[in-house]
Write a structure and sequence with these properties.
Blueprint lengths: L1 H16 L11 H45 L1
Length: 74
């Protein structure tokens, strides 16, 4: 039982040793602008997909209703 506790402590100590305390990273202007542009494009694609998902069926229903009114009116 004592050996198991020692193993747990060693594993915990090894994990703690490999956790970084601080991260020092530099993203250059080219990579930064690319990352920002990619994020903006992804957000716009999602918004446009949602708009298209709602707009085109609504537009088709609107045209159908308009055509039905025209037929009923004549």
């Amino acid at each position: 039982m004592g050996n198991l506790n020692a193993t747990k402590w060693l594993v915990a100590a090894a994990v703690i040793m490999f956790i970084p305390l601080s991260v020092e990273a530099y993203i250059g202007p080219g990579a930064g602008l690319t990352a920002i542009g990619t994020f903006v494009a992804l957000v716009l694609i999602i918004i446009l997909a949602l708009v298209a998902f709602v707009w085109y069926p609504a537009k088709r229903a609107w045209k159908r209703r308009k055509a039905e009114k025209r037929i009923d009116g004549e």
